[in-house]
Amino acid sequence: MFILLGTLTFSAPVHAGDLLDLYRQAQTNDSAWLAARAGHQAGIEKAPQGRSLLLPSLGLSASKSESDQRVITPSVNNTYRYGTDTYAVQLTQPLYRKQNFAGYAQGLAGANQSEFELELARQDLILRASQAYFDVLAAQDALDYVVLEKDAIGKQLVLARRNFAVGNATLVDVHEAQARYDIVAAQQIAAANFLEVKKEALRILTGAEPGPLARLEAKLELQAPEPADMNRWVETAVNANQRIKSQQETVEIARQEVEKSRGGHQPTLDLVASRAYSDAGGSVQGFAIESTTNQIGLQFQMPLYQGGGISSKVRESAARFEEANQRLDQTRRQVAQQVRESYLAVTNGMARVQALEQARGSNERALESTVIGYERGVRTGVDVLNAQRELFLTRRDLSQARYDYLLGRLRLKAAAGTLQEQDLEDINRLLARKSPS
Question: Other C-beta atoms within 10 Å of 113: how many?
Answer without folding.
Answer: 23
